[in-house]
């Protein structure tokens, strides 16, 4: 019976253990934390957005980097198969807006609990507080793992499922990258992804906490083409902007070049229609201060900021506003300019961009092309997706394939 060691007990590690054990292998999870699935507890705001129930074509459109590499993993465990698996293990699931799937209880602990129970039933050994320092080799293939403290384990295969470098408080501190490099693998430089954005404009801080719905955020490389334009929600922070629209944009930012943003506060109206709306509002409140009319168009703090950006006095009586000033306001409301300064750090990122170079991993098995017996699963690989349950599905699918592949007799 093959003895497989799995480094990391998160989403990828648990599925790798489950599929390896079901494949007839003896399995040991080496988890540096005090419990399994620690990061799962904070996904989906504690509800665990386990996957997305959209069709396969839509699913792969949401994978930002190296989607083709994941075809075999998805064939081993698709999103719908994952839902069936969790249901069969006693975790009822529900699908909400945007095809996002959650446990029916809205408790992430139900997902980890269901998987943990199955691992116990299958006889999977779990070592908590176990940090792997290195992977040992004999005759050109994996032979075991050395733990912090000096202990060595003899193993027939090792699956690295350590996660990325985001949310280091959950134990994702990049250990897997060091193990991969030691085995001769290339690691694509890691950057935070699905993360808030810092802007060069400091006025965003004055609107901190203001949330906007049904706005359009667009992005262009300075002097170049538009590469992002979506409608949705966002909010202002003390450093810039955040929210769903912004997190998605952060995963698409180019590595070089200044990125300029445009925020359309009234995407349902073209400039001409919006100008008529302002004319109508101005006519109905000729003797009021301009700031009062702006309160009917935007939240107070944002309305005042728009006037400041347009260099128009909020105390000006509406009947004194010139046509040029009105049109300037219209243009500003349709395209508030912002400039990307950078992103927040790994400690605020939902996932990690970068990781083990996929060209050096067999996509059909997830075994290293450089060191037989070494497998990779989850966020440690250079694959990532947008928000909505896609990244967790990648972890579950790659874990399933790596576990099943490692369990097969050579």
UniProtKB/TrEMBL annotation:
Q: Which domain of life is it from?
A: Bacteria
* UniProtKB keywords: FAD, Flavoprotein
Question: InterPro entries, alphabetically?
Answer: BaiN-like, BaiN-like_dom_sf, FAD/NAD-bd_sf, RsdA/BaiN/AoA(So)-like_dom, RsdA/BaiN/AoA(So)_Rossmann
Q: Which Gene3D superfamilies match?
A: FAD/NAD(P)-binding domain (3.50.50.60), HI0933 insert domain-like (1.10.8.260), Translation factors (2.40.30.10)
Q: Where is the RsdA/BaiN/AoA(So)-like Rossmann fold-like domain?
A: 4-404
Note whether Lipoprotein occurs among the keywords.
no
Name a Pfam family for this protein. Answer: HI0933_like_1st
Q: Where is the RsdA/BaiN/AoA(So)-like insert domain?
A: 191-350
Coiled coil where? none
Named cofactor requirement(s)? FAD
According to UniProt, the name of this protein is NAD(P)/FAD-dependent oxidoreductase
Q: In which organism is this protein found?
A: Candidatus Alectryocaccomicrobium excrementavium
